[in-house]
Amino acid sequence: MRRLPLPLALTARLSPVAVLAAAGWALSSGPLTAPQAAGHEPAGTPTATRSASAPSAKAVVKTYATAPAPCDALSGKTVESLVPGARTAGKEIPSTDSELRRTCSWNALEGYEYRWLDVSFEILESDEEARKSYRERTGERSGGGAVPGLGDTAYSVVNLTTEDEQETREGVVIARASNALVVVTYNGSDFESKKAPGTDEINEGAIRAAREAVAALAKGR
User: Fold this and answer.
1) What is the pLDDT of residues 146-165, one digit of tens each?
2) How far is residue 128's CA from residue 28's CA, in Å, rounded to a whole number?
């Protein structure tokens, strides 16, 4: 089937997404350091003695220190299945801090069928910071549900949008593994029928990619 250029409406819709991805995810969280209570000392204790005996702050132990290479997170077979016609190598999106945040993108138009897939890794300072970010992000997306057996906890949601009579269905999976977050975005459209792929196709595809990405995170630990 002949390849068609992307409709202007969809191009306009996706452009802000690409810009935001290229800018990287902004982190507002900082190191989680528990304050230590001062110990009781008898009057007249020398300053040097007091300083030496005072308890020091404990360093936060992080399971994951750096983000893995996102374009290596998925097998070529998975990429070919989810994004027909895409280069299996993918394209990494520039990040403001590649040690903590990395994203790879695949997209292609095969005939009239368009697919877009993003896999992102984000490393936070502690498990608690990751839990907080996970709660905030899943709280912003209603209508989804838990994904059993994926990381420490995971959430999946699928939404349908229509612009200029063209439907696009998008699935998002957010998974937490210790102090890391894995976010997968998968969407698709059919430019001939103007219909979107089915909910199960998009949801199952996003979950499949997320499972491989979480496994890649653990492997590179």
Assistant:
1) 999 999 999 999 999 999 99
2) 14
- What token pair was written down for 170? 């998008």
Q: Is the dihedral of CA 6, 9, 11, 17 positive or negative?
A: negative
Token output for 75: 């097998």
Closest to 209 in 3D by CA, of 26, 35, 75? 75
Q: Backbone phi, then psi, for 15, in 5-degree steps?
A: -60, -45
Q: What is the pTM of this model?
A: 0.74
What is the pLDDT, as a whole number, of residue 59? 62
3-state helix, strand, coil in the chain (%, to 5): 30, 25, 45
The end-to-end CA distance of the chain, in Å, is 43
Per-residue burial over 118-144, b = 16 or more CB atoms within 10 Å of its CB, e = otherwise: bbbbbbbbbbebbbebbeebbeeeeeb
DSSP code at position 171: E
Residue 154 contacts residue 147 (beta carbons within 8 Å): yes
**Residue 209 in contact with residue 74, Cβ under 8 Å?**
yes
The CB-side HSE value for 143 (13 A sphere, CA atoms) comes to 10
Instruction: For residue 70, give the nearest of 148, 149, 131, 123 by alpha carbon.
Output: 123
Give 53's contacts (C-beta < 8 A, 6+ positions apart).
Answer: 39, 41
Identify the CA nearest to 86 among candidates 105, 73, 70.
105
* Residue corresponding to tokens 């220190």: 65
**Under 8 Å between Cβ of 171 and 158:** yes
* Domains identified in the chain and CATH numbers: 64-219 (2.60.120)
